[in-house]
Design a protein that fits this description.
Phosphatase 2c, domain 1, 15 strands, alpha+beta, 34% helix, 10 helices, Beta-Lactamase, 444 residues, 2 domains, five-stranded antiparallel β-sheet, disordered N terminus
């Protein structure tokens, strides 16, 4: 019945707080409406349900449920064990054992004895004398001795997600029917909370996999080096409209693009795929200046009754006798970052900045050009990399430039990984990064 806070297993509550507490409230309220409790205890139970707040994550909700169970029943100890799909305990939330060193030493229950019986039988368990029970396995050394036990499995639609149990009432009386009914109501809320967390995690993995499969594998752009990364938003909806692309055109020029379709729902990702393919076809067919290609994309999008909108940077890396030149057109997107081999950085942000595509095809597009020194790195990215709630975007751009400058000589794969994972940050939006590096030898 102990929890080691320094060795938490994967949190069962990694999903939006409003879903967690709402699920818990609904589950407990439904059960409470069917209970026959004295008015005071029923008011306390419903008050506990109402107190579950939207600023809690799911694990906090589960902890509040254990606290409420111990308080309402009047028990010295309470615990909630979370089971994995294989039936092993992966997390334990406790009340009444406050020594973190003891919790760390005892670890998680091993899945045998009375707790195992409760889960295996799928029935509430009430024990007046734990030591004398034939299925008791005893306590590990250092564990508080507990005489009485009341536990219920956490079940939703026939699936067992864990158990909620209490030990030793403070007044010394045995657990009774009312205690069992109240604990069952709270266990229902906890079970729904855990089930929603599992469903959320499966949805998170599925949406991320879907998005990644829509993005291309970078071709060999030698003698240029290239690397790309995509990171979904940290919270649902994780489907977004970010994309990158790179290819060698018939005229031998390397073409690159990074873009972001407006919206973050199930429609954004398919629209991203359509716009990416349109732009690829237009670039491959015409090989024109970047501004002309983006203008053609604008006109192509008018075939939609409700044209999708997107920001993007579309560019060409051309090799000249003097070295590489980057020509590009910007449609309302964060500017590319140029990182010199010496760590000097600058954003390629000319005054003639275009609007996103899909808004007005009559608005002119502009082409720009900038030389790329040997060994320079060109970084294209979406706004999720630099935008944070409550923070000016210029702060994010400055931070990115400083971080990238320190990695000017790092391999591109390492550079992209470092920019994505810096400070373990949580992304409010999905993120795409595309990095390209010119050969260190200008003769290449």
């Amino acid at each position: 019945m102990v929890h080691d806070p320094s060795h938490d297993s994967p949190r069962s509550g990694a999903f939006p707080a409003d879903e967690a507490w709402q699920a818990a409230r609904d589950g407990a309220t439904a059960q409470a409406s069917q209970l026959v409790l004295d008015p005071q205890r029923l008011r306390q139970l419903l008050g506990t349900v109402v107190a579950l707040s939207g600023d809690m994550d799911a694990r906090t909700v589960l902890h509040r449920i254990v606290e409420a169970a111990a308080h309402l029943v009047g028990a010295r100890y309470g615990a909630l064990g979370v089971l994995s799909a294989r039936g092993t305990i992966t997390d334990l939330i406790t009340v009444g054992i406050d020594d973190p060193h003891l919790c760390a030493a005892l670890g998680l229950p091993q899945g045998h004895g009375l707790l195992h019986a409760m889960v295996g039988d799928r029935q509430p368990l009430r024990v007046a004398d734990v030591a004398a029970h034939p299925r008791a396995a005893g306590f590990p050394a250092g564990h508080p001795v507990m005489r009485t036990l009341l536990g219920v499995p956490l079940m939703v639609r026939g699936t067992v997600y864990g158990d909620l149990y209490l030990a030793d009432k403070t007044d010394g009386t045995p657990f009774d029917d009312d205690d069992e009914h109240l604990l069952t109501a709270l266990a229902s809320a906890a079970g729904v909370c855990i089930e929603n967390a599992r469903l959320y995690e499966r949805l998170r993995r599925a949406t991320e996999q879907f998005q990644r499969r829509m993005l291309p594998i970078l071709p060999d752009l030698a003698p240029l080096q290239a690397a790309a990364r995509y990171e979904p938003a940290s919270e649902l909806p994780r489907l977004g409209g970010d994309w990158y692309d790179a290819m060698v055109l018939p005229d031998g020029v390397t073409c690159v693009v990074v873009g972001d379709v407006t919206g973050h729902d199930v429609e954004a990702a398919p629209l991203m795929g359509q716009i990416r393919n349109m732009l690829r076809a237009l670039a491959f067919d015409r090989c024109g200046p970047p501004g002309l290609v983006v203008s053609r994309l604008d006109r192509t999008l008018t075939m939609f009754a409700d044209p999708p909108t997107a920001t993007l940077v579309f560019g060409r890396l051309e090799r000249t006798p003097e070295g590489y030149v980057f020509g590009w057109s910007n449609a309302g997107h964060p500017p590319p970052l140029l990182i010199g081999p010496d760590g000097v950085t600058c954003y390629l942000a000319p005054a003639r900045h275009g609007i996103p595509v899909g808004i007005d095809a009559s608005v002119p597009r502009f082409s720009h050009a900038h030389p790329l020194p040997p060994g320079a790195t060109l970084l294209l990215f979406t706004d999720g990399l630099v935008e944070r709630r409550g923070q000016d975007i210029d702060t994010g751009l400055d931070s990115l430039a400083e971080h990238a400058a320190r990695l000017a000589g790092a391999p591109l794969e390492e550079l992209c990984d470092a920019l994505i994972t810096q400070s373990g940050q949580v992304f409010d939006d999905d993120v795409t990064v595309l990095a390209l590096r010119t050969p260190a030898d200008s003769a290449s």
